[in-house]
Design goal:
Layout: H1 12-21, H2 29-38, H3 41-48, E1 52-55, E2 66-71, H4 77-113, H5 129-134, H6 137-151, H7 155-163, H8 170-173, H9 179-187, H10 191-200, H11 206-224, H12 250-253, H13 256-260, H14 262-276, H15 282-291
Antiparallel strand pairs: 1-2
Helix pairs in contact: 1-2, 4-11, 4-14, 4-15, 9-11, 10-11, 11-14
């Protein structure tokens, strides 16, 4: 039932007093004041959620625990801040990997589809029937692309507009795609072209490539909007290959929870980077970051889907 919002405004000192009343240990009021002023009570509340008290649902047929406002004994404000800082570093590292994959995929699509036609991205003859006719997603996708083109202030777009009539060829147009447009277009390509890309990236089936790129796009959007990432459920989960099809991924096949959480997408990024940039240190940097996960009761790397032995897997350096 939707009701009117009646909670009162709280000043930062009032916020600190409320957290203490609810059982949070705050040993340095000045530091807590600085964090609450800089980050905000509501934003930090997403990070202290794991330490809130909860009780079984009533009646038991209800789907989830009942979460209360008070905190479990021993909950410390400094642990909340440590988790927030970890999450910020995690988002930046994920974005670093995603950027490399995005640039590489755009280039590979331009090289592959450009063989058909300079404007293959606009021509239904070179795209899947579902994308162009059944769902009519292609028309909406083109509207988005054309809007980006008309609004762009990039030098390469200005140069093209000054010399040539639209539309821009694919190898120019791809530079205007964001990751969402890339993911959408990838799903609209014809099977033979997708098979070539999938093989180039080491996938035995094309559905794995398109699925993993969609999952990466979801996580990329969380990062780009500065959302909480560390224990986020991935709505569009990456599909797992058949056992034995890609031995480096076998540990992911039976671990549904890992695919539902960030670990599945981290595996996708790492796997794609092996093709995009084989000498990358991204996997090692992720290991260093995860090994520095805050040491506090009630949270662990398993909440991100990471198995306890994840670094012993062949995929990771």
């Amino acid at each position: 039932m939707v009701v009117a919002f009646t909670k009162p405004y709280l000043s930062v000192p009032d916020q600190i007093a409320q957290l203490k009343r609810r059982g949070m240990v705050i040993s340095d009021d000045a530091a807590a004041t600085a964090y609450l002023r800089r980050i905000g009570y509501y934003r930090l509340s997403g990070y202290w959620h794991p330490w809130r008290n909860s009780t079984p649902p009533h009646p038991p047929s209800q789907p989830a625990l009942v979460v209360h406002d008070d905190f479990r004994p021993g909950t410390e404000f400094r642990h909340v801040v440590e988790l927030y800082v970890f999450d910020k570093k995690l988002r930046l590292l994920i974005l670093d990997g995603v950027e490399r994959i995005e640039v590489a995929l755009r280039t590979d699509i331009a090289l592959l589809m450009g063989l058909h036609s300079p404007v293959a991205h606009r021509d239904p003859a070179y795209l899947s029937l579902k994308f162009t006719t059944v769902t009519k997603d292609h028309a909406e996708w083109l509207k988005r692309l054309d809007k980006s083109y008309s609004r762009s202030k990039e030098d390469f777009v200005k140069h093209y507009k000054a010399k040539y009539l639209p539309p821009a060829p694919l190898w120019i147009a791809v530079e205007l795609w964001d990751f969402g447009m890339l993911s959408h277009f990838l799903g609209g390509m014809r099977d033979p072209d997708l098979d070539i890309l999938a093989t180039n990236y080491g996938f035995p089936r094309r559905i794995l490539l398109t699925s993993w790129v969609r999952s990466i796009n979801f996580v990329r959007n969380v990062c780009a909007h500065h959302g909480r990432l560390w224990n986020r459920s991935v709505i569009d989960q990456p599909k797992a290959p058949s056992h034995g099809a890609v031995p480096a991924l076998d540990h992911l096949v039976a671990d549904t929870y890992a695919r539902e959480r960030l670990y599945g997408v981290a595996v996708a990024i790492r796997y794609l980077l092996q093709t995009v940039n084989p000498s990358t240190t991204w996997g090692a940097r992720l290991g260093d970051l995860v090994n520095g996960f805050p040491s506090a009761p009630g949270i662990s790397i398993r909440h991100m889907g990471f198995p306890s032995d994840w670094q012993s897997q062949h995929l990771w350096p």
